[in-house]
Amino acid sequence: MSPALDKRLPGTLTPGVIKQGLKTRWLGQSAIFSFDVIESTNAEAKRLAQEGAQGGTLVVADTQTKGQGRLGRPWVSPSGSGLYLSTILRPAHSANWFPRLALTAGVAVASAIRKTGAMPQLKWPNDILIADRKVGGILTEAVFDKKRIEFAVLGIGINVNTEQDEFPLSIRNLATSLRLSLGRRVSRIHLLQSLLCQLEEWYESLNKGGFDPILESWSEFDSTLGRVVEVFLPESRVVGVAEALQSDGTLLVRDKENCLHRILAGDVVHCSTDRSSGLKG
Ligand code: BT5
Questions:
Q1: What phi-psi label fits residue 132: left (phi over 0), alpha (psi between -120 and 50 degrees) or beta?
Q2: Which of 52, 61, 63, 277 lies most in the core, judged by the most C-beta atoms within 10 Å?
Q3: pTM over 0.85
Q4: What is the Cα–Cα distance from 91 to 87, expressed in whole angstroms?
């Protein structure tokens, strides 16, 4: 869909409403592009970044027709009930810094969600769960110039007031929303503003103080470590105990042969909370 065909969002998540009372210093303070309908806020943010949009630019939509997850998977984006946003970042870092961004965003999203009264957990590398169901997801993408990051796009989807029947059957038993878990509606605009504050804070902490404070906070929300996990890699599969997060954000998984696997990116399925079951045989 060309930007010209995208409709502006009437009344709700408009730039004016988002900026009113927004307490960030730079994130969302310059350009905000809000859409009623768009294919994907990440795709739009990448397009804008390629045209030179500055760091801190925010793209938000009421619904997405081609919301993207990782590896070409879809992100279901019912109209009016969720938050679908992407921010452009221009970190002055090399490519190996990039995996830290998704974990940093996870901490920010979980912190903002916790302020609503819900009890979020993080599943490595990019899932936000409540009671083992997915309430949000993070999609980080970047364009590299040689080994440096030219720009990164951080996309976040959160099921805020989504009702059960808005989820397609394929994910109905896997997904949840803040409304479903809290039993009341949550203001999307307040959650968005709070999320932008958390993102700015944690991103600055990453740039100034390094990754350790983020890993520490991530561990507070963690639902992966200590569990038996099945990790799907492009060409293989690892089953083992998720043992630790390393200082670069990679996950260490120990298999039943006692071999330690360093997982840079992959799909993790939680098999059990028991460290020994699932590794037998
Ligand atoms: C993610 O991918 O979890 C990243 C999702 C990022 C979405 C945001 S929305 C704003 C921005 N613009 C975009 O186009 N994308 C970002 P992944 O780990 O691959 O998970 C995808 C899987 O989650 C799907 O295959 C479904 O099983 C499940 N899923 C899809 N939509 C969901 C939803 N609304 N709630 C819970 N689970 C969902």
A1: left
A2: 61
A3: yes
A4: 12
39 and 178 share one domain: yes
* Residue 281 included in any domain: no
* Domain total of the chain: 2
- Asked if the model's pLDDT at residue 3 lies above 50, the reply is no
Q: Give the Å distance between the CA of 75 and the centre of ligand 1.
A: 4
Domain that holds residue 142: 15-221
List Cα–Cα distances, 64 to 7, 67, 226, 237, in angstroms. 12, 5, 36, 32
* Span 79-118, pLDDT tens digits: 999 999 999 999 999 888 898 999 999 999 999 999 999 9
Q: Is the CB of residue 175 below 6 angstroms from any atom belonging to ligand 1?
A: yes
Phi then psi for residue 227, to 5 deg, are -100, 155
117 inside domain: yes
CATH number reported for the structural domain that contains residue 257 in this entry:
2.30.30.100
Domain co-membership, 30 together with 166:
yes
* 63, 201: one domain: yes
Statement: residue 147 has pLDDT above 70: yes
H/E stretch holding 241: strand 237-245
Question: Ligand 1 centroid vs 280 CA: distance in angstroms?
Answer: 32
| 111 within ligand 1 shell (Cβ under 6 A) | no
DSSP track, 181-211: HHSS---HHHHHHHHHHHHHHHHHHHHHH-S
Distance 190 CA to ligand 1 centre (A): 22
Atom of ligand 1 nearest to the CA of 68: 14
Could you tell me the distance, in angstroms and rounded to a whole number, from the CA of residue 144 to the centre of ligand 1?
A: 24
CA dihedral 66, 166, 267, 71 (to 10 degrees): -10
Residue 143 lies in a domain: yes
Rounded to a whole number of angstroms, the distance between the first and last alpha carbons of the chain is 52
